[in-house]
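wait is this the right file?? whatever heres the structure
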């Protein structure tokens, strides 16, 4: 899953893939981010980790084309990534019992609606906490920058 959250708009967009994201899938995701309803034409600053597809040669020309500015995060830090980490925690807390419930209802492997459970979790977990999570991460980052 790849998702974009914002302090102003909460969950902007997300994409779920059956397998890992490659460059083409990630480019499709950032094109969807540019097309998100709340975004408009303004330049977007996209905070990213150092996943290989974010840096790929195929991805690079799309940043300027889509008026997106990649901001490369420091080595992984759950404090700076507070928004996405805390939102993922909420999704997982909802998702795990839901998936177990669905697995018990249809115990054969082919009856396990994993993808349906993912989408149901995204639909039902409130996004109202995302702005607070984003503010928390930015506050920690600002404090650390001031200390340097």
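ok assuming it is, sequence goes like this
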């Amino acid at each position: 899953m790849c998702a974009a959250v914002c302090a102003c708009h909460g969950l902007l967009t997300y994409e779920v893939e059956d397998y890992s994201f490659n460059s083409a899938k990630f480019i499709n995701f950032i094109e969807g981010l540019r097309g998100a309803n709340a975004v408009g034409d303004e330049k977007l600053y996209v905070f990213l980790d150092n996943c290989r597809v974010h840096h790929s040669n195929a991805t690079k020309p799309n940043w300027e084309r889509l008026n997106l500015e990649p901001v490369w995060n420091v080595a992984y830090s759950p404090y700076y990534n507070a928004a996405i980490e805390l939102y993922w925690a909420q999704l997982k807390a909802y998702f795990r019992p839901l998936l177990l419930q669905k697995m018990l209802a249809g115990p054969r492997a082919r009856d396990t609606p994993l993808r349906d459970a993912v989408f149901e979790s995204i639909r039902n977990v409130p996004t109202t906490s995302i702005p607070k999570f984003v503010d928390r991460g930015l506050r920690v980052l600002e404090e650390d920058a001031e200390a340097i």
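The two ends are 34 Å apart (CA to CA). so i think its the right one actually
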